[in-house]
Amino acid sequence: MSYIAAIDQGTTSTRFIVFDHNGDVVALAQREHEQIYPQPGWVEHDPEEIWQRTQQVIEDCCRGHALKRDDFPAIGITNQRETSILWDRRTGKPVTNAIVWQDTRVAELVTRFARGAGLDRFRLQTGLPLSTYFSSLKIVWILENVPGVRERARSGDLLFGTVDTFLIWKLTGGPAGGIHVTDVTNASRTQLMNLERLAWDEELLGIFGIPAAILPRICSSSENVAVIREGALTGVPVCGILGDQQAALVGQACFHSGEAKNTYGTGCFLLMNTGAERVQSKCGLITTVAYRLGKQPASYALEGSIAVTGALVQWLRDNLGLIKASSEVEQLARTVSDNGDVYFVPAFSGLYAPYWKDDARGVIVGLTRYSNRGHLARAALEATAFQTREVVEAMEADSGIHLDVLRVDGGMTDDDLLMQFQADILARPIVRPRIKETTALGAAYAAGLAIGFFANTEELRRAWRASKTWNPNLDEPTRDRLYSKWQKAVTRSFHWIE
Predict the structure, then answer these.
(1) Between 244-251 and 438-451, two packed helices, what is the crossing angle to 10 degrees?
(2) What one-character DSSP code corresponds to residue 236?
(3) Please, which residues bridge with residue 351 across strands?
(4) Helical H runs in 10-46?
(5) Which of 149, 409, 468, 478 has the highest Cβ tally under 10 A?
(6) Residue 21: how many CA atoms within 13 Å on its side-chain side?
């Protein structure tokens, strides 16, 4: 029997997951990597550590389940998006640590490039506002602040990539002929690709001062990209590449216009497939590429990005020590019957959709002597649900489509208290699929479609099954009161950074 597999390189860990033809998990290995915080607002990863973890999880999975490279006709790769790496094409050594998507060090560059033209200066070409989130200004920062890098970039000695690009280059030979490539979904998050032409925009490269020579070739999300030449999977082709949230959209089989999913991970990311139409948001969302399968036209999506959701639970664990494991947060939150009028706005990296306020910072409001650890835990979980409602309302306004049901996935969907509150505050059902590993599954689907392992997207739609549904069970006055208080709390986070 042959399987389809995916490298799932996320913000906090790297996984290798093997699926059978039904989409069931056959094998899984996972390893975390270090989160590096050199200064307030800075978030970095060591690219070499990520490369090591990638090799290790592949070897762990194959060795632990007696799998061989011949068992895989192809693999896919999905990755944390926007995280930016520049490295030497001759040595493979990064010029500095990867700047993670959550990092806010480029806030001054946002102000510089927005001066006179506003944050939407490049939205028409790219679908994105100027923000600390996307790759463009991260590249500019490295070029301007790491000694000698601009000269090396101009001379053709350096390469740029998001994590998918870096890992594929390493897997396919690195300095000895590694393939320098990314797909349309990851390219659409750099703020350097023209959404209509699906090509690097020369005008934007000139404005940002970024040499075109450092950029990878843009390919489809589902095609035979390159053959692995390093490690346990030598000889296996990479046939699927998708940014993690687009991969989850594919894994949830949202192939029709108007279908949407929300992924609950380090952050929360709600995507709605808009088909061939590039919907320009008027409500604080972004326009992005959903996927491109083979030579078919690209499908687009509206996205609402929330920076901090699962990361807030990790913060309670690592920074405050309220819990010893992230899984304990639900139990702690259940020690109280409600939030005790405590609201937690986790604007650690500013606020993303629908506000796009880089100057916001996290706040906890409503504290009294009555407040305790349980209220903090409950407020942290409820923050995820409140932020999701804000994005859903913006998405419905932009698209003109009412979401009757929200499909959900990601680690936080194991939390029954959160999922029930999400249904309550949205006043509509929440549905989790039978297969929860939708991000890795989406990358595996993309790879499988490229080689005929899966016949077509309709086969994948038929395979989708629900495993659990949470129905709303909260009266309207209470729901409105809670949400109104949340909106009031959000305003308290504004304009903290001057």
Answers:
(1) 80
(2) P
(3) 357
(4) none
(5) 409
(6) 11
CB-CB contact of 355 with 391 (8 Å): no
Angstrom distance (rounded) from CA 125 to CA 108:
22
Residue whose entry in the numeric block shows the structure tokens 């129905």: 471
Q: Residue 1 pLDDT > 70, yes or no?
A: no
Is there a contact between 114 and 137 (Cβ–Cβ < 8 Å)? Answer: no
Residue 160 CB partners (closer than 8 Å, separation 6+): 84, 85, 86, 139, 210, 214, 215, 216
Q: Which residue has the higher pLDDT, 349 or 354?
A: 354
**Per-residue pLDDT at 411:** 86
Residue at token pair 């693999």: 75
Strand partners, 459: none
Structure tokens at 264: 């609950």
Q: How many CB atoms lie within 10 A of CB 436?
A: 18
Distance, in Å, from the CA atom of 314 to the CA atom of 34, rounded to the nearest integer, reads 13
Tokens linked to 36:
């590096």
Query: Averaged over 78-94, what is the pLDDT?
Result: 96
175-198: burial string, b at 16+ Cβ within 10 Å, e else = eeebbbbbbbbbbbbbbbbbbeeb
Assess whether the previous peptide bond of 354 is cis (omega < 30° from 0).
yes
pTM for the model stands at 0.88
